[in-house]
């Protein structure tokens, strides 16, 4: 095993990369997925350092006043630099292709979109707004490319979320979708106080949510929730027998490090397989 360079202080991404390398050493089956995450994190960090603040008033009272009618981060608030967006989309598609996560046709579609200065803004807006309650149509040019957009836009969305979360803790938000960008959660964290926080799959914002209820269909009947846990107890799955979806959780009470969504997403791939085998999606 090679020596690992020390992490620069305060860089969560570097700690994530160190954890991903450790995961690869411990579980070689996960190497391809870990390598893809490492490449994406390095790419995202390069861009994130130059993403400006979102164009929303960053004032605690103002942000809290928007919450009751949220999600609060509109497409117009995103600090979009089109040359960065094109770079991120192309580089993300290339990284995902290298690890066989997508095929050549998808890489070509991304390239065509990046060359089309009139289509790209419409498709990006459709991606951002497609998850909002009540939106039922999505741009046909986006279909099948959602995961590429999600990874590519991560530096922009996490930058916005960090800036907003520095001013508000979103405590008044009781819903199952992200209070900032309307995204679905794809991971939860169980805190030392045994609360459950959901983590947005798009902007990584975290918000407190009911400990039992399914964050997709809101079923809260305990008899219709099946729980599974990893052998070390670090991860749990809550599988909903009503909508057949599941959410993974990182149990911070059973770990010496904090939750790291890019790492925990890879570490829980075996749990995903177990859930899918049981008929959940
Ligand atoms: Zn979000
Ligand atoms: Zn459900």
Explain what the structure shows.
There is one protein chain. The protein has 281 residues and is α+β, with helices and mostly antiparallel strands. It has two domains: 11-172, no CATH class; 184-281, no CATH class. The protein is built from ten helices and six strands. It has a six-stranded mixed β-sheet, covered by helices on one side. Strand 2 and strand 3 (206-209) form a beta hairpin. Helix 1 packs parallel to helix 9 (261-267), helix 2 (31-48) runs antiparallel to helix 4 and helix 4 crosses helix 7. One zinc ion is lined by residues 214, 216-217, 219, 240, 242-243, 245. One zinc ion binds at residues 178, 180-181, 183, 200, 202-203, 205.
Give me the secondary-structure topology.
Elements: H1 12-26, H2 31-48, H3 60-66, H4 82-98, H5 104-115, H6 119-129, H7 146-152, H8 154-165, E1 185-190, E2 196-200, E3 206-209, E4 225-229, E5 235-240, E6 246-251, H9 261-267, H10 269-277
Helix pairs in contact: 1-2, 1-9, 2-4, 2-8, 4-5, 4-7
Residues 214, 216-217, 219, 240, 242-243, 245 line the site of one zinc ion.
């Amino acid at each position: 095993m090679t020596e690992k360079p020390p992490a620069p202080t305060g860089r969560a991404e570097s700690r994530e990369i160190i954890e991903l390398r450790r995961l690869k050493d411990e579980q070689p089956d996960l190497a391809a997925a870990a390598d893809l995450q490492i490449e994406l994190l390095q790419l995202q960090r390069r861009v994130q350092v130059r993403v400006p603040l979102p164009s929303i008033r960053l004032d605690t009272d103002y942000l809290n006043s928007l919450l009751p009618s949220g999600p609060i981060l509109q497409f117009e608030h995103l600090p979009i630099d089109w040359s960065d967006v094109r770079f991120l989309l192309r580089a993300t598609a290339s990284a995902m292709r290298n690890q066989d996560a997508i095929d050549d046709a998808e890489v070509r579609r991304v390239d065509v979109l990046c060359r089309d200065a009139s289509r790209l803004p419409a498709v990006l807006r459709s991606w951002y707004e497609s998850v909002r309650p009540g939106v039922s149509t999505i741009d046909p040019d986006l279909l099948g490319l959602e995961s590429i957009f999600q990874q590519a836009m991560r530096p922009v969305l996490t930058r916005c979320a960090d800036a907003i979360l520095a001013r508000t803790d979103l405590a008044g938000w009781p819903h199952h979708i992200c209070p900032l960008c309307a995204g679905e959660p794809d991971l939860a964290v169980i805190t030392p106080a045994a609360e459950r926080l959901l983590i947005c799959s798009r902007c990584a914002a975290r918000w407190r949510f009911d400990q039992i209820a399914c964050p997709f269909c809101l079923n809260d009947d305990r008899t219709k929730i099946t729980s599974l846990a990893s052998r070390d107890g670090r991860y749990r799955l809550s599988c909903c027998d009503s909508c057949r979806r599941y959410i993974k959780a990182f149990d911070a009470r059973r770990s010496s490090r904090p939750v790291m969504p890019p790492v925990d997403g890879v570490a829980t791939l075996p749990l995903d397989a177990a859930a899918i085998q049981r008929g959940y999606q």
